[in-house]
Amino acid sequence: MPRPLLALILLAMVGGLSYWNATGTEPANDSHLTLYGNVEIREARLAFNGSEHLAQILAEEGDRVKAGQVLARLDTELLQKMLEQAKAQVQARQAQLDKLLAGSRPEEIAAAQAKVEASQAQARAARDTWQRLQRLLKRKLTSAEEVELARANAEAAAAEVEAARQNLRLMQAGPRAEDITAARAEAAAARAAMALAAQRLEDAVLKAPFDGVVRDRLAEPGEFVTPQNPVLSLARISPVWVRAYLPEPDLGRVRPGMGATLHTDSYPDKAYRGWVGFISPTAEFTPKNVETPELRTRLVYEMRVFACNPDGELRLGMPATVVLDLQQPAGAGPQGPERCGQ
To answer: Tens of pLDDT along 220-275?
Structure first.
């Protein structure tokens, strides 16, 4: 082989290797682009929405759990008593409101009417006594003091009649609108307090917010926990994503939502479905872990390629190869998480 041709071939091979080392990609052809990166996952640190002693932890590290599954419980003895107290307050406030809305009973109105009649009879008797003593005083048969006392008794009896009449009017009119409004507000406040107590009791149960794997157990039964103290950490196992870097020359050929195929060294014969979920709007220099000292000024764009991981085989930090079909039409097939059947 002529030496100039051999030198040209070697130069091309060195250029391709340098390109791969600088960007974490293989030189793209017209139909496919290959990128390299590492698997990353979402993780949630789960804490109770309340402060109490931890009673139970029902999951161990490595357990696969389903969304809604109970993972831990707080001690609920105090919370139960608070709920019972709130329910009793609701009953008392509602009974008071019902009493005001019902108004006076017929028996109470009849009793008030009878009191008016009795006070009227007493007032007539007192007035008659006063008038009789006035006549006797003119004949010098009684003292002025006894007449004055009789007059006071007659006036007091008349006042008793007026008070009895006013009480009867109140009985017939029923409670004031302001009193009913206040009672309604107190009953509503009691119901709100009961709902809050019930919510606190419900918050004493920690449930998985999504399907995942328990990574860390951060507390043990008996510890006093607060919302600031996570009890468990939960990793979302599907979908996961691969963080890769897209060279600037290929930016115009890749778009969010584009389908992707992923491969790993751990499962070389298995392909994972995925899609381009995010492309950074900001360029950056080639990351230090994939660049070479000779090519420090290459501009790349960070991107996330999501991958379906139904069996939990893709793990945090695992190297992965991403292959993009550059000729696929826009909107072809399911988009986003629908590719995983979610």
So the answer is: 999 999 999 999 999 988 788 999 998 888 888 899 988 899 999 999 889 999 99
SS3 195: helix
- The total domain count for the chain is 3
Strand partners, 207: 70
CA distance 201 to 72: 13
- What whole-number distance in Å separates Cα of residue 47 and Cα of residue 57? 12
Q: Does residue 218 lie in a domain region?
A: yes
pTM above 0.85, yes or no: no
What CA–CA distance (Å, rounded) separates 144 from 140? Answer: 9
Are the C-beta atoms of 60 and 214 separated by less than 8 Å?
yes
Tell me which residue range forms the domain holding 126. Answer: 82-199
Per the document, the length of the chain is 342
Residue 307 forms part of a structural domain: yes
The answer to whether residue 1 is domain-embedded is no
Task: Please report whether residue 3 resides in a domain.
Answer: no
Residue 284 pairs with which residues in a beta bridge? 300
The pLDDT tens digits of the residues spanning 207-216 come to 999 999 999 9
> Are 184 and 95 members of one domain?
yes
Tokens of 62: 């490595």
Q: 297 and 227 in one domain? A: no
299 and 153 both lie in a single domain? no
Closest of 292, 257, 296, 247 to residue 278, by C-alpha: 257
